Amino acid sequence: MEKKYLKTENINLHLKIDIDRDVILKTFPVKDALIFQEIKKELISDFDYNSIQKRVLASIFKDKKPTLAVIQKGRGIRTIIETIKKYYLYKGKTISINDVSKKADFYIFTFDFENEVKLENIMQTLEKINSNNILIISNKEFELSNFNVIKDEYTVAKNIEYITYNEIDKIKKSDNFYYPFLTSEEKIKNIAGLSVYQDPTNLSLYNTNIENVTVKHIQGKYLNWFELTPKQVKYKGVIVTFGGSDWSTNYDVAVKFAEKWYQVLSLFFFWMPNQKPTLAEVPVEYFSEIEEYIFKHYWKDSPITIVAASKGSEYALLLSTYYPSISQVILYAPGSHIYSALDFTKNTSSWSKDGKPLPYIDVTKSDFWTFIKNQMIPMMTKWAVSFKDWYASSIKLDPNAEEKRIKVENTKANIVLFAGTDDQMWDSAGMAKQIKEKRPENTELYLYEWAGHFFQWNGFVSLRGFRMAVWWTIEANQKAFEQNQKDLYKNLEKYHPAVENKN
Description:
Distance between the termini: 80 Å
CATH architecture of the domain at 210-361 and 406-453 and 473-495: 3-Layer(aba) Sandwich
Largest sheet: 8 strands, mixed
Helix content: 25-40%
CATH class of the domain at 210-361 and 406-453 and 473-495: Alpha Beta
Number of strands: 20
Low-confidence stretches: 1-13, 19-28, 172-184, 190-194, 457-469
Mean pLDDT: 80
């Protein structure tokens, strides 16, 4: 046992740490009630669980019964699942979501009867599991013996009009919407901003009522995406958008492309019912299904551009080394290596090939004192957490880092890199430079001084109970955003020429 002392006078913090590098130390509350209190605070802050959430969780943890929860989207399904996941993580146990082949301590299954669901397949699935630790979430009731059936029953007061986010335009036409301390313009902006990021997997939150654009949601074998087709297609080819670790499809960016007359596919790559439940071992083969769809429904020689951000950029760059059909990748805050999965239940690669995890940089093996300085102390002092040095040190400490670098020299795609020099999430500027060095030809690098991980919002992002730093100055970010829009469309035009007018 090695003892180290950290003393930082400016924050009046004295921290004594006992280190055993071969042992992972965990501390938990003794009583379940305190565990749930911590989980609730992390997920929904000081708010209470709603009625259906309370009943479902009571059935699982108090009654200890297998449970069928009949719930419609928008009623907090994600919070229920996250509560169960975090509890089992606290206990050092495993959880499986929509995967009967995985042996686990608790199983969750989600069924949407708006799509084709065969009850006999459900029964066969349940027969394979000899456990009471099961939660089935469905939008339709069906018979299950020995299951607690929890039905969501709630009413809205007659003087309250309930509308979906797809009907948000109704608010814009009325002055009868009240939100304190904001102007009418700010009200509209705030409400519109809630739609997707409130729950990226809730399809009803996506505004599909876009002028001169037809939006379709399509689900394939693994594929799950929105197809946006402008009324008049003015440019050849297809733009494919990915989000990052936020579970989204980068939908707001996809809409902007479609409004400028580009054809767009806006894709989920994990978390949806037919996909990997977390950002862990996401298959690169996923793109074969996208490729097949594009070849079937668009011009055979359609130029394909992927526009992605953060972890999505890491994925897009990796895909370009396997698929020569990709003409161009436009990457915001790119990663140069394959990193650990964003799954707190297991340590594995973010991506897989042929069912096997690809070699990855293990960020848990980063420099210990970097972790203390940039994560632990900020969390204890309620300051913003930075992951930049953490990621950087994990590369330096890995003797096999080169093996885990994305081999950009093998791609045929044009590469466009956008990064801020003050990115506090990870060193996207440094990694963008490395990508450029490894593949200098047909690689465009744009660095924006003092901008950070995102070119929007303020300098921090709230992340499950703590603040995360993403950049330094709002002014630099705004300047970067304005310049970036020019740089973005300049590069799109190179690979997506105008459609010839046959009239």
